[in-house]
Write the structure tokens for this entry.
Amino acid sequence: MGKEEILQEIENMAVKDLADLVEMIEERFNVSAAMAAPVAVAVAPGEGGEGGEAAAESYKVVLTSPGQKKIQVIKVIKEITGKGLKECKELVDNLPATIKENVGADEAAALKEKLEDAGADVELQQ
């Protein structure tokens, strides 16, 4: 399978499947999505048309409530941001809190889903 075919497959994936793929890549190659994000943004404008417009959109992932599973949410925030537990707990204690800024639509949706799976209430803001 060539690079172009791989890109086409990724393009057709649902957000949840894409988030799962990112997690698998992170585990298998011992990298983080934060390292891969600049590469994804650099590739998108080359597609032209709608791809260039979508790459220009940036979102903020904002935590509005940790829900009932505060510890789980703190762990997910730590995983997303790479910050220490203390800093992540401070984010959760001082709401609303911006978890990540300047992310694309797909990454923002994946992060929102990940936080919601942990029990948090999250908003995406442009």
Remarks:
- The CA atoms of residues 7 and 70 lie 37 Å apart.
- The chain has two domains: 3-55, 57-125.
